[in-house]
Amino acid sequence: MSNSSTVRWDPELIRRYDLSGPRYTSYPTAVQFDPLLSPERLIEAGLATADSDSPLSLYVHIPFCEHVCYYCACNKVITRNRNKAQPYLDTLYREMARSAELFSKGRLQGRQVDQLHWGGGTPTFISHGQMTELMSALRSNFNLRDDDNGDYSIEVDPREADAETIAVLRQIGFNRISLGVQDLDPRVQQAVNRIQPLEMTQQILESARSEGFRSINMDLIYGLPHQTPESFAATLDTVIGLSPDRLSVFNYAHLPDRFRSQKHIRAEDLPGPDAKLQILHDSIDRLLEAGYVYIGMDHFAKPDDSLAIAQRSRQLHRNFQGYTTHADCDLVALGVSAISQIGDVYFQNEHDMGAYTRAVESRASAVKRG
């Protein structure tokens, strides 16, 4: 990429580096995390290198989903039993109290939280009351902003939300929202077990706008079964017509030996490497033509979006939540498998739900490796 409005495409360079590697969206990559570093040592080193006067970014992982999307590689728990959420939240509150004590120095004199994100799983799996309670607990333990000037975002599955849900999210403090779309082609949706009519996404989008959310992101995935350059272009044109503030266009990595749900996807139904490359190339060109700025890798934003402004002013930063304008923030991540960045140290919580719960109950910390 030469700049945000033109892209130089070098097929020879792409072929040269067409090799398997760690997941490209995360840095440091998973192979660099050392399980032999003790949690105590990681936390101590993080505190020693952190700027206690700088603001914080908070991430909360809600792992539950009612339905499995076959492509998904996130850490999740598939269940229709909504009662499973409360014991997890109770454990999360114990971890939260300990993390606030370590990294925020308490509510009254605590470091201001300029960025907040709930991810999953499906954060809107939990009830409206539980979402309100969770945000209240965060406010009790951390110094959340009251002026709506922070970047407080949440991932929303339009199949798991309605206008009332969006109103509750706005009321408790969220001002940014990310909608999972992936693909609008019914054949693709059927193949990945995510039936989501366009009207469903439009209704949530309209609700978010009417409630005053100041930024709306949409997630798309290319490389899914039955996709072609032509079919994905049709999805992209419809999404551009919806005019989200940001777009994420992710590459699907087919790893059925690692992610059991991907075994439902037949390799012969997937577009080949050349087709995937064509989809990416066409998508970049189409989004630039539509006026979006290419932020980097798989992210696009409107020119007046804070990410595009940060890119122009060379203030753009990337952490485990993705691209951000908050380079000065330490990242405190809560929940199963969540990854924090404190000072010069990265550390990750236990990936298994049982191990996470036992770790928090025994030592109020779920840190496993870093």
TrEMBL record:
Gene3D superfamilies noted in UniProt:
tm_1862 like domain
Q: In which pathway does it act?
A: Porphyrin-containing compound metabolism; protoporphyrin-IX biosynthesis; protoporphyrinogen-IX from coproporphyrinogen-III (AdoMet route): step 1/1
Q: Tell me which Pfam families the record gives.
A: Radical_SAM
Q: Which SMART domains match?
A: Elp3
UniProt-listed Enzyme Commission number(s): 1.3.98.3
Q: Which reaction does it catalyse?
A: coproporphyrinogen III + 2 S-adenosyl-L-methionine = protoporphyrinogen IX + 2 5'-deoxyadenosine + 2 L-methionine + 2 CO2
One MF annotation (Gene Ontology) recorded for this entry: coproporphyrinogen dehydrogenase activity
Q: Which InterPro entries match?
A: Coprogen_oxidase_HemN, Coproporphyrinogen-III_oxidase, Elp3/MiaA/NifB-like_rSAM, rSAM, rSAM_horseshoe, rSAM_sf
- Where the record annotates domain Radical SAM core, the positions are 50-280
Q: Which UniProt keywords apply?
A: 4Fe-4S, Cytoplasm, Iron, Iron-sulfur, Metal-binding, Oxidoreductase, Porphyrin biosynthesis, S-adenosyl-L-methionine
Q: Which cofactor does it need?
A: [4Fe-4S] cluster
Q: Where in the cell is it found?
A: Cytoplasm
Keyword Plastid, does the record have it? no
* Main subcellular localisation: cytoplasm
Subunit structure, as described in the record: Monomer.
Q: State the protein's purpose.
A: Involved in the heme biosynthesis. Catalyzes the anaerobic oxidative decarboxylation of propionate groups of rings A and B of coproporphyrinogen III to yield the vinyl groups in protoporphyrinogen IX.
The cross-references to PANTHER family, in alphabetical order and at most eight, read:
COPROPORPHYRINIGEN III OXIDASE, OXYGEN-INDEPENDENT COPROPORPHYRINOGEN III OXIDASE
The family annotation for this protein states: Belongs to the anaerobic coproporphyrinogen-III oxidase family.
State the protein's name: Oxygen-independent coproporphyrinogen III oxidase
What taxonomic ancestry is recorded? Bacteria, Pseudomonadati, Pseudomonadota, Gammaproteobacteria, Oceanospirillales
- Per the record, the gene is hemN
